[in-house]
User: Fold these one by one.
Assistant:
Number 1:
Amino acid sequence: MSRAQKPRGGSTPARAGAVVLADTLAAQPPRPESYGAKAANLGALLAAGYRVPPFAVVTASACAQILAPVAEDIGRALAGLHHTDSDALRAVSAQIRALIRGLELPGSVAAELAAAVDALASVKPAAATGEHSRSSSASDFAPAGDTIRLAVRSSVSGEDSATDSFAGQLDTILNVAPGDVPAALLDVLASAFSERSLFYRAHRGLDNAAVDCAVLVQVLVDSAVSGVVFSCNPQSGDPAESVVSAAPGLGEGVVAGLVECDTYFVDNASGRIVSRVVADKRGRVEPDAATGTAVVPIEGGDSTPALTDERIGELVGIAAALAGRLGGPQDVEWTYDRSGVLHLLQARPVTATGARETIFDNVNVAESYPGLSSPLTFSILRAAYEQVFRACHRDFGATKQIVARNNASLYPYLVGTAHGRIYYNISNWYRLFLQIPGMEFAIEGWEAALNIENRYRRPAVPKRGLAKLRTHVLRARVIAVIAVGWLRLPRRLRRFFDELAVFTADLDRRLAPETPSRERDPEALVQWLERLLGQLVPVYSVQIFNDFLAQQLFHVVGLLLERRGLDEQQALTLRNELFCGEEGVDSVDPVRSALALTATIRADEGLRALFEGPLDTEAVWKTLAQKEFAGFRDDCLRHIALFGDRTVAELKLETDPLGEHPERLVPMLRNYLRGGQNIDDMAEREKRIRREAEQTARTLFRGSRAERLAFRFALARAREHVKQRENMRLGRSRSFGLIKRVVRECGRHMHEAGLLAEPRDIFWLTWEEIVALVRGTAVDTDVVRTVATRKADHERWRDTPVPTRIVTTGIAAATIADPALEAPATVDDSATVLHGIGCAPGRVEAPALVLGTPDPDVAIDGQILVAATTDPGWVFLMVAAGGLVSEKGSVLSHTAIIGRELGIPTVVGVPGVTQRIRTGDRVALDGRAGTATIVHEDTP
């Protein structure tokens, strides 16, 4: 640690005017109103004897002087701005930032800043005086022979406080040359009016027009390893545990989440490291001449710990000392330079300590509910999940006491919604697992199957005594419960489809014209849907049990392959190929039926002329009513009756089934007619891949009879459960088709009663609101106003990008940031090879077709479909495509399974692919390697 640093040669520091050097600031009482919170905190660290890289601060009054020429323009731009209006925020932010970037620094400020930068460029820090001291030289801050580089960052009043951390809201500019500091200063000031900063301050009740911003100019350390240390656990607020995060290179990699980090959990009382998560580090953030900083790949990865135990102890000790000195838990950023010297970069109170953290994630649910979903869809889904997982918890061995304890606080809250999108409440899903003693072993396979970011720290297995015995007893109990459930599984699967048939027949009778109207009046319909939610939906819990077995066995197959010497990628590829060509997958039946219709068209001259002719979709469907086409039209209606519930976004209640728009079958058949697809040829190709993979596996397990038998058993059972997973999904589609019919009938009744302007407006109400309106318990009966408000909200959210994961503390609705203002995922515009998870083998080169919400009339003829996410209804589009690549998905997602079954090269989990690839680009897709390569970019 060093005391205040002095310019080399004994020159006099700048006076306390527009720009103040570190030693002057450290000698004064803290003045955050003048220097901002970050600079004041750094001054306090210097005064306490800690080593801090040399810095100067452009005071808040000097920054106000810089902004004075445009202050009135900024005030006018901010007047009347509402922080929930994303478009207005974007426009106002761009206007203000352009004004600030066009300024020139006042002469006096520019002169003082230049003198301060010169002083920093010549600094040689004095020796530190604390126990971690070491004499320093300029090499701590720049590699030998290099010009010193600087970091320019904000220091705002209220920033880095216990209540308002402003974390990531204002820009930090790294690797700035001394001559570029004035421009970087203006960029930082402009960032105080970025979209996310304007939203953050307004959302926290702070005045956007009163931003007291100072700016720090600090020497950039030539960092070897950097990170953050918390003197308490920042998630739980537990003061007994410190947490250290570390990664090679600059600290930006850790705080911005750009690289893989190690994490260490330390017991404060004993100093013992109780848990460590050492990542396979693939990149490090380093200075870059062109972009300031860049993520530099680490060749071959690095799985060695970023920190020694001695350094972990040193960091935890400093954080504890600062917590005691500053009166509360501290969040300390730090770096070790290449000489092994520790520098503290900032310290601030840990924000929201002890507040309950809730994690919402849409990584898997977005496959079934892509984009915006109506309030009615969300409310029915929430009620369905409550019923299913209450029953499911019992299936996995939860006691009556556990189930009773969770009836009110857990089961109803397994899904959440943010800005019209549906998310899993991942925090509660972990609670589901962990409330069944002995079940924690299954979390790893569940996370891997759903491609969910790991959040769970599995405790070490006790090595001796009663604790070890108890662990084995609990595991045995869980295994016994699962074994019994597995034996009951076939009967339970049959029971679901039997119950579904009963409900289907009853609704057909109830909605028939000859049935008395009292059996389909609003109260009767509400009772019917309540019965479905209470009787049929809990039976669907068998799907969750089957899914669990599929996920775990699929994971076991991969682990067994790795044990025979394959690396992770090789095991993934072979496992995918072993699951190709599975027979009896009911989800493929709708495609087989549609291809059979296409074969009929191809064989009939009149039908072929009609479908290849110039008539539009509706005209073709009307023409099929002619007598000469009656037989084919009947075949089409049979297809619609059997498979009309399978559509794109089929689980959204607002999505119309095919029966309401039968003409939409026409473009699908036209796509197949153009492409010449043959389901038998596709299936034979997949079977060939499967046979070759089985031969590879036999060779791999030769010589180990026990492992060979275990592998055969796991593979056979995994194949069966994956197949049943898809079959149950088709049953789920048909169940939702029943709900669609009921709510549409309710909408018609409410429209006739004058409550709704249109029958379809019922989708803007929740299920609970519909029941309240029917039974007289609604506290707000102005339904038209409610519908108008929600329509406006959805229109505003429609084109708003949203994060995959949202982490909230305390009241969830109060701490969910506006998704429009989340920092967008970084997409490398120069990258031509994009990497994801290969799910269905095969290689194809074709033009790309980027799809958001698929148009039923879209023409598909062998292109590679590029999407943010897909759902089961995409199966009809996939068949006509050459391949598919999506941003979301996992190896057990519906897209992956159908891709393997139909022999369509498929790659999922490719970040930013819809931003990097444009429609018309020529792309080579490799479903085995998991890559999408841009061969030629189409010129707009």
Note: DSSP finds 31 helices and 25 strands in the chain.
Number 2:
Amino acid sequence: MASVAFCGVAFASSVSAQTAPTEVGELVVTGSRIQRPNLEATQPLLVISSERIEAKGQTNLAEAINDSPSSGVPINPIGDQGSFGTGRNYVNLLNLGTNRTLTLVNGRRFVGSNAASLFTGAGAGGQVDLNGIPTGLVNRTERVFGTGGAVYGSDAIGGVVNIITRTRYEGFEVNGQFGMSEYGDAEEYRARVIGGLNFLDDRLNLMGSYEYNKTEALAFTDRSVTNRQIAFANNPLNTGPADLIAGSILIQNRRIPEMTAGGLPARTGGTALSGILTIADPNSPGGRIAAQFDRAGNLVPFQTGTFYQTSIASGGDGLNLAKLSSLRSPLDRHVASGFATFEVTPKVRLKAEVFFSRVEAEEPFNQPIYNASVFGGNSAALRMSTSNPFLSAQAKAAILAQPTALPADTASPGDRIFFLNRASSDIGNNKTSAEGDLYRGVLLAEGDLELFGRDFNWDVSVNRGQSKGSFSTPNIVQARFLLAIDAVRDSTGAIVCRDAAARAAGCAPLNLFGEGAPSKAALDYVGVQFRSDFQIDQTVYQANFGGSLADLPAGALGFNVGYEFRKEESDFQPNQPQRDGVGRSAAIAALSGSFDTTEYYGELSVPVFGGDFSFIGLQGLEVEGAYRYIDNSQAGDDTSWSYGLRWKPINDLTIRGTQSRSFRAPAITEVYLPKSTSFTTATDPCDSRNINSGPNPTARKANCAAAFTALGLPATYALVSNIQSFTVEGATSGNPDLENEIAEQWTLGFVYQPSFIPKLALTFDYVNVKLTKAIVNFNLTSILSTCYDSNAYPSTVCNRFQRGNAASGAQAGQILGRNPAAGVDGPQSGFVNAGFTNFQGFTVGLDWNLELATIRGFDRFGGGDPGTLDFNLDLFSVREQETSVNGFGTDLNRDVNEIGNAEWQWKLESAYTRGPFSAIWTFNYIGESKFNNDFTIETRTPLTVDAYMRHDLVFSYDFAEMIGSPMGLKNMRARLAIENLTDQPPPFGTTGLGTYDVLGRYYKLGVTARF
């Protein structure tokens, strides 16, 4: 088994030995640009080899990275998708946010794929979609936690993922794999070719890869864990807040009893189920039963199920969201890469990298157009009349025969008014399809030189990337929808739209009585296709110079200095119907923006003790530091730094630690989001009912008094704030004054490699991250709290609203709404630097490569070769994870040990290898977790979900010796992977999305042949 090590020291195993080792000189380990003789680092480093990825049949780098317990809940194709993020694969180290994980390829930036919109399902930023990076020529993937800003720049808050490709390749490889679940679905296909050749006496190496990967869709109804529709609902047995009876309980088979796909007629537009119209109960003579429209448009019995609260019943005929929810979005990926290395002289090399990918995805099931009493505005229940000609005779008669007569339709004598509640999946299904192309090219010149008797290295590069694509969603034109449902009969008896102008413009009447009732002509008339195009461009120029400054008694004094210029551009263009907001969703504005950053950086590595210059307790000591100066065209000047040490008190033990300051620059979305109108209410801290409360009552009262005085009002003015009851007009937008997020980070750990147990390594690393000035999307309540609860009043956030002065009469002291004539903009919500996040956790790693022949007595088995055992333990424990949006902690959200952030998670991989045969067993454990730390026995039951255990098993065999070497075959390894061997479902109470396996037992069969 190819080992996975936190220490960065990976032992060769039989599986990894199948590929001939590559001779390398000094290496650059992630977290530093200084060349070193080994992979040892001061930072917590996790290395995943390509052999491990191949052995487990993982077809996407996201699978391999997310397989680790320290990877948080990712953005991936499982579950609900963002409107403009369908099918994406973003990594989330330490659960600090996908936009706070920096992803590199060969130590250089890779163009992001996160569109500049609020509706991508991910935080605003330059996240790299791992769908666009091929697995074929990857050598290893390295991850560093809790540091990286000084070496690599923005976004390294949770850490850095560095995907390192092979430097040279000669030969040819083909790979095919097929996967399918125990249930005969969720198919996955992968085909891959890799080739490489040397030319010009091996001075030129060309290598490339192409792979095709396809995954099929799944719906919630395809798995029992999601089909059972679990939800929390009001407990009918609860009697009060202190009765030790939970206020909410888990129920199964959740339905929404206020609507159906075919339509539910009601007396009013209210939510009470008693308002549903009734028909004679066929099973109870003389009785009545609630009614719904069937596919033929007739009224038939409707079972409401066991009602718990608005929109929640157990069982019955109400809307089943499982039929409208995607479990897995299908992906179709074409990914290619090419690399060239040309040795100009023995000390100068030219290199080129080219990446291309095309990814198509779809969210096959999504919630539809609604008209129901549980919604308002355009989505409220529809007012209908029995004069509607689409009503069947049976339905019309039943509606007119209600025991209590319905309100009369004054426009049509003899007819009655009723309301229709409908989930119109047959009109606008909201299924989003996405397609995207990614291009990236790198030109690099690098070399070695000798100056003044010392060795140095240098490189210069240009890196150009572009990611572009589109998202398409069917929707309706609301104005046309209203015209189409207002149907009448014309003089010939044909059903037409009532409005003559609409008829002349092509209006086709829309039948809503029964699922599938709308005609194609009506669907064409009311339908519209929303399409949004995006493009992201990245340009990076970089230069590095490093080497050895001096020879110290313990080794060479290493350094690296560098320069980087980076420009990021993003463009998001919705089509005109989407900009106009003609459908049910809010209007989406176009967004274009860019920024550039000029950065200078340097590193120094000082060996103090080591080698021949060592003493008792000081077998080795190395100190290193890094510094980066940033000049960002948007966020301004800033600095990032780090320092750390590695101390070997004895040869078997290394103690390591780092202290660093990293940052995340504001994303283009956060800065350039166009201004749009908003209507908002808020809690006003200066209201007389609130002024003596809050997280800092003394500061609040003093700050409000200062505000009143500045308005010409008494300091003790008793304000009754209208904003708490009535909306005012304002706007929401990006913020050009945003500053960098700042993370203060430290790590401390050790690596223990006992000399008396060969090839054993134990690691421990503690990681602490304190993120401040977090960029958050502020509403008015948060803005007001931040302004008046601060000890540094007035802060810039106070400029995002205005109050009426003493001369404004009834508006004195009030939050003012937009009034252009008076020069008042109204409250300005949007992005600000205010929040904080605190994280603490630790990792434990164990790597042990045990050659069984070294154990007494075992050499008698297997003809003297009993094989090799490999063990790898990867444990992650979260000790603190808390977030405040307003920055004062009054809204503190503690996430430790909640679902998706379990306090204890670990994975143990055990492998046995002998000759051409290999078997790998993986045991994954996620500890018992809480639904929410704020829940108590008075509010919810249950409070927790059980621990989760999953087993994976992989068998592989190399048939090369058996079949010989036709056509130059070097090896041909077949593998069978069985994931979730015991078909373990997620723990009861959760769907498992993002945290637990939801596919069930899954088989992968693959073959790799190398020539």
Note: The radius of gyration is 32 Å.
